[in-house]
Amino acid sequence: MKxxxxxxxxxxxxxxxxxxxxxTKFDTSGVQFVINPNDEFxxxxxxxxxxxxxxxxxxxxxxxxxxxxxxxxxLAIGADTAIRVDTEALDGxxxxxxxxxxxxxGEYDLVIxxxxxxxxxxxxxxxxxxxxxxxxxxxxxxxxxxDGDKATAVREIDGGKEKITTTFPLxxxxxxxxxxxxxxxxxxxxxxxxxxxKPLNVVEPVAADTHTKAEIFRKxxxxxxxxxxxxxxxxxxxxxxxxxxxxx
Amino acid sequence: MSILVYTExxxxxxxxxxxxxxxxxxxxxxxxxxxxTAVSINASDVEELGNYGVxxxxxxxxxxxxxxxxxxxxxxxxxxxxxxxxxxxxxSQSANAKYLAPILSVNLDAGYASNAVKLPIIExxxxxxxxAFTNKxxxxxxxxxDVKVIGLSNNAYGLKENESSATVEDFTVExxxxxxxxxxxxxxxxxxxxxxxxxxxxxxxGRGMKGPDNWDMIEELADVxxxxxACSKPVSDMGWRPHSEHVGQTGKPVAANLYIxxxxxxxxxxxxxxxxxxxxxxxxxxxxxxxxxxxxxGVVGDAFEVVPQLIEKLKEFKANNS
Lengths: 248, 322
Ligand SMILES: Cc1cc2nc3c(=O)[nH]c(=O)nc-3n(C[C@H](O)[C@H](O)[C@H](O)COP(=O)(O)OP(=O)(O)OC[C@H]3O[C@@H](n4cnc5c(N)ncnc54)[C@H](O)[C@@H]3O)c2cc1C
Ligand SMILES: Nc1ncnc2c1ncn2[C@@H]1O[C@H](COP(=O)(O)O)[C@@H](O)[C@H]1O
Prior knowledge:
The structure holds two protein chains of two kinds. By secondary structure, chain A is of the alpha/beta class. Chain A is 28% helix and 32% strand. In chain A, the strands form three sheets. A nine-stranded mixed β-sheet of chain A has the order 11-10-9-12-8-1-6-7-13, with helices on both faces. The complex binds flavin-adenine dinucleotide (FAD) and adenosine monophosphate.
């Protein structure tokens, strides 16, 4: 089983979100970048397949040199090889094209991506990539098992879950549930040392075109002050919710 | 040239989001001087779409589509968009719509903007405002392809009634085995509870509840309000509540009309995911809890005292107002 895990390099969840260049670019100054949380769950599940079922696990990112510490971290967690497609990620379609090429060329059976990246929240790369590769696709995947040439997955739906069986090649959009929070690994010293010796292959992009462009960003308008209601006067709260907010 | 809209149904009945995406599609149709065509799969009550600006309904009845299948459903919409020569296709952001939209956009070679919150601007560039950075910002995204796919965030546009006389047309689609690479073996759905995605009101609780045994009052409050229940991340990590209830930046987004947070501190990752909700209420015994800065209404008090009282008072209110 050859597994490819797609890693998007995103600002840490505590980052202050600001923009520069007349609000056209995300301001990266002082921002810590991490493996996209959804991808980290997928990577950890991939490590399980490696340990228990002898799978090989490579990681891939589409991005500039600045993303290398993030994929090095994935190597330190235990991936075998990292691939960086050397081009700036501009939109979901372009990234999916680049990733689909890597997945096809490498003849991967299983591609694990995340449900969405927490920066741009496109929620589109895995589905696009699956269609481009003619692979099966399971989104919002919260459980994945492999038995020979069959996969069993659980997908989260609105208000419940769905059990799915399918075959390879397969792409998943994963999230928490693939593994638990407590299963996530913080790379240890040995992992970090080993990661330095592991291959990080920089590949040329196919120079896919884009379909969309992020133009101007804006931040939500600042909120007014909270209206405090006394704990012994909950009728007031109900009145506000009914008459002012019109929410009940 | 018609605007195509995918109107979702469940057990043969249109979902509320179907009327919202129809309203939004009508808004676009007005900007572009064209009509609205809805696609509905295995739904019986489709005429109602005529109240929300839909001019034509392509009604698909097909046993093969009785269970949701993203690739097959995307194929239906692809064939409909080609038949109607649609330049814009609108979907909701339900779990199913988010699943099929990327597939559809590859089929149609269309640019896809997800999480849209406003009508597009069609002069010069076609741009759509969408949320980014998990609701910490908005972004104007331009779409350069001939055909465009837009995913409308739930509750971002609302329902707009717009009387039209919708015609219903049976629509047959060609599906191949390739569209069914995924088999749905079983669906486990809580049918007597509203889902977080569909809920108008969400009652959410955090670590301040001390333990899983104290959730009875949270469920009761949700019951009285017809609300979905949700929780903070540590609550689901500790197994007090199922993962499906975890909301926030790394959990589910909440765009409800009313979000009530009980014993939740208001960490940035939590607030990010729920900020699209219209009205936020916090109940917390610590007046310094960051949630008070993000909420519209707040009660400083002990949840174990406030919530039972609130339940009683809401019951009275409901009895008097129904
Ligand atoms: C990468 C990453 C991603 C994350 N993603 C998410 C996410 O998606 N969603 C999320 O929720 N969190 C997320 N978090 C966690 C987040 O940082 C907070 O730790 C979490 O939201 C805190 O949960 P809480 O408010 O329930 O608990 P606490 O922070 O412990 O707050 C409990 C609150 O309850 C109040 N309280 C205590 N007793 C009572 C009482 N008797 N009556 C009333 N109030 C009481 C306290 O005053 C306190 O404010 C993430 C963290 C990281 C690092
Ligand atoms: N630049 C990228 N490089 C590698 N993988 C990516 C990249 N962007 C997105 N992905 C993958 O696609 C998933 C969904 O991303 P998105 O569609 O951008 O929300 C992420 O969780 C990643 O697994």
